[in-house]
Amino acid sequence: MYLNGKRIVLGVCGGIAAYRVAELARMLMKQGAEVRCVMTEAACEFISPLTFEALTGEEVHRQLFDLTRERNMGHIQLARWADVVLVAPATANSIAKFAHGVADDLLTTLMQVCEAPVLLAPAMNASMWASEATKRNVKSLCSRGMHIIEPASGTLACGEQGQGRLAELQDIIDALVPLLASDELKGQTWVINAGPTVEAWDAVRILTNRASGKLGVAMAIHAAMMGASVTLVAGPGVELTPDWLERINIVSADEMLSACLQRAVHTDVFIGAAAVSDFRFAQSSNEKMKRGNMTHVDVRLLANPDIIAAVAAMPDRPRKVIAFAAETSDLIAHAKEKLARKHVDAIVANQTLNMGKDEMAGYWLTDKTESFIECMSKQAFAREIVMKIVEGK
Ligand code: C5P
Questions:
Q1: What is the CATH classification number for the domain harbouring 347?
Q2: Is residue 63 situated within a structural domain?
Q3: Which among 184, 260, 257, 274 has a CA at the least distance from the CA of 222?
Q4: Ligand 1 atom with minimal separation from the 303 CA
Q5: Is residue 93 part of a domain?
Q6: Does the beta carbon of 307 sit less than 6 angstroms from any atom of ligand 1?
Q7: 378 and 275 in one domain?
Q8: Class of residue 269 by CB neighbours under 10 A (exposed 0-12, middle 13-18, buried 19+)
Q9: Domain that holds residue 128
Q10: Do residues 155 and 263 share a domain?
């Protein structure tokens, strides 16, 4: 729920991509945002306002001269209400109107009075996007501080090829999120490791685990949304993250150790959410090993360095170091032992069966406190952890 309580005015203009924006509205709501739609007259030709009313549970704002709606929430109030205005699809016509200060309908008038950040997601025919007029208008809007997520390339609705398709919906949300960041953690640097590590035995065989890195990614996004500058050190297979989040991809525990030691110096918070492989192969090969007629192979494993303990032992260690403990039994006892042994400030104890899942429950443990966090989505759980770190609980 990265967009919890955030107020978004969604301006829908008249382009064929308007039908994809219905799904976008649903995705924003799912992230916890409050969405109010403003549709241009042309947009209503492409998709019914009823679709957006059903999805957002709110009346769609359409006309400037609608007295009832103006009384309930007029265009000025709507502009003031918004934490952000997202226009998708932004057509060449609307972009031109915004650029020249035309205010002849509700959306263009609202844009004139809006002081909230604005993100435009254009979609149009490739030649219109490439036209001098559109280029100049987009440039002028950018110079006034508006944000643009450029259209994607591919086959367009008109059958032509080129740049003009509405950007991917998740990319639009990723571009929107930083515009809604608060500044509570401004000036702070956080380093978070996440996901599995992979130890190679030969050219094809590996030693790894079931971690997905979902929780680490969610904590990184929450901290960044609160204004921290965050580095995610991610193991193989960790989901894609927004461009604005600094990410270092590693494979083995050794690589994760070097990246963490280098980046954690003098930081505010280090979170070790990664499921680091405790062991690596004593011997590995770049070639694929042949089975031949062997009946068995003896494999020797060596212990990997303990990354979080190494970070906590640095002379210029982070102000707070938070570990995770995934256990199959005696959750709290094992986690408390690790809290002391690894010299960390807090540890989140949870069951190993949470690995790879979308939900989890767990305990937040420090040397003084112990609290249970009930089962919830990993995004929500991540928020709880970030809040506990911020509030110094
Ligand atoms: O000892 P255990 O692996 O259960 O400890 C879990 C915590 O220690 C996690 O925070 C994990 O990221 C970290 N860890 C580490 N390096 C290792 C093993 C675990 O940083 N080699």
A1: 3.40.50.10300
A2: yes
A3: 184
A4: 21
A5: yes
A6: yes
A7: yes
A8: buried
A9: 7-180
A10: no
Distance in Å, CA 378 to ligand 1 centroid: 19
Same domain, 225 and 112: no
Do residue 145 and residue 200 come from a single domain?
no
The one catalytic residue among 13, 114, 142, 158: 158
Q: Is residue 268 within 8 Å of residue 229, measured between CB atoms?
A: no
Q: Give pTM, 2 decimals.
A: 0.90
pLDDT tens-place values along the chain, 393 residues long: 789 999 999 999 999 999 999 999 999 999 999 999 999 999 999 999 999 999 999 999 998 777 666 666 678 899 999 999 999 999 999 999 999 999 999 999 999 999 999 999 999 999 999 999 999 999 999 999 999 999 999 999 888 899 999 999 999 999 999 999 999 999 999 999 999 999 999 999 999 999 999 999 999 999 999 999 999 999 999 999 999 999 999 999 999 999 999 999 999 999 999 999 999 999 999 999 999 999 999 999 999 999 999 999 999 999 999 999 999 999 999 999 999 999 999 999 999 888 888 999 999 999 999 999 999 999 999 999 999 999 997
What are the structure tokens assigned to 9, written together? 């005015």
Domain check: are 176 and 86 in the same one? yes
Supply 256's token pair.
């994760």
Which of the listed residues 154, 180, 206 is the one where a domain comes to its end?
180
Number of domains comprising the chain? 2
338 lines ligand 1 (CB under 6 A): yes
Phi-psi region of 118 (alpha: psi -120 to 50; beta: other; left: phi over 0): beta
CA 150 to ligand 1 center in whole angstroms: 41
Q: Are 190 and 228 in contact (CB under 8 A)?
A: yes
Determine if residue 284 is left, alpha or beta; phi over 0 gives left, psi from -120 to 50 gives alpha, anything else beta.
beta
Q: Are residues 273 and 139 in the same domain?
A: no
Q: Tell me which residue has tokens 């970070």.
A: 311
CATH of the domain at 104: 3.40.50.1950
- Could you tell me if residue 273 is inside a domain? yes
> H-type helices in 226-330, by residue range?
253-264, 307-312
| Ligand 1 site-directed mutation target among 301, 307, 314, most atoms within 8 Å of CB | 307
Tokens for 247, please give them: 């990410």
Q: Is 44 a catalytic residue?
A: no
Domain boundary among 180, 205, 226: 180
State the distance from the centre of ligand 1 to the C-alpha of 343, rounded, in angstroms: 12
Q: 2 in a domain, yes or no?
A: no
Question: Does ligand 1 come within 6 angstroms of the Cβ of 304?
Answer: yes
